[in-house]
User: Fold these one by one.
Assistant:
Number 1:
Amino acid sequence: LQMSPSSGLVTIILFLLGQTRGDSVTQLGGLVILPEKADVTINCNFSATGYPILFWYVQCSRESPQIFLKATKDKEKGISKEFEATYCGKSKSFHLKKASVQESDSVVYYCALSDTEKGTAGG
């Protein structure tokens, strides 16, 4: 998310990452502009054999990406700073949600996965 000064708008920056060994995540890339206090859902779908470990990363300006949320099994919910994402093995999704976005949510968000058996990271 990126906040426009004095505009009351929040811009979400999303990136589509590649794939590893046939496992992949799909996330729409680009910008999403929202008014402050709007609800947001950032979609993340995955394709994998078995049940990988799923992550949401955040990246603040001029910093390295940091793990924000993590889920290791089906139906597990990750919660951090009023955001949540539920691992859904049936629909192969890990959508990030928050009610009432704020200026402090103005960072870049990445969805990623890790193969639980081989220990490879993908996203």
Number 2:
Amino acid sequence: MNRLFNFISNKKVTIIVAIIIAAVLYVSITHMDASEADATNASTKYYTCISVESGDSLWDIAQKYMTDEYTSTQDYIDEVVSINNLNNDSSIVAGTNLVIPYYEVTDLN
């Protein structure tokens, strides 16, 4: 009877260890796939020069050129204002050239 109890206990321990190993392998593999995806695509920040057209506002420019890397439209506008040494009133004039930032995803493969 003792032998049967030991056999069943050993079998349970073996199954539990196998489940733990399988779980660790699963987590490792799925985490590695996510890391590889991040490593193959990287966002690179670029700058371009645009000419302000009649009726344009910083908000309009932000809506056109802002990418997902910015947390808010105001953050993007603040950066454009800073880069171009604009006043805090955020007024721009048609014909003015502005340097604006944008991000582009680069495939590293």
Number 3:
Amino acid sequence: MDNNKTEIVICLGSSCFSRGNRKSLPLIDKFLKENNLEDKYFFRGSRCFNICEKGPVLKIGDTLYEGVNPEDVEGILKRSLRR
């Protein structure tokens, strides 16, 4: 990872994946591409954050978002990435 990029990590554990992150994954990728943000953010999946009861989970930089639904993703990204 480029140390100058902020990391975005989506949980791909079975619980988070089946509860919404399967749909959120392409939405995040699309948002980064459409807004030309790929040079500022490094997007990757993670196996599990071990807080399944709070999922789906998404982490942007040092901020952890819990209970993220695909419908929430664009708003979270707009608020978090457009600072």
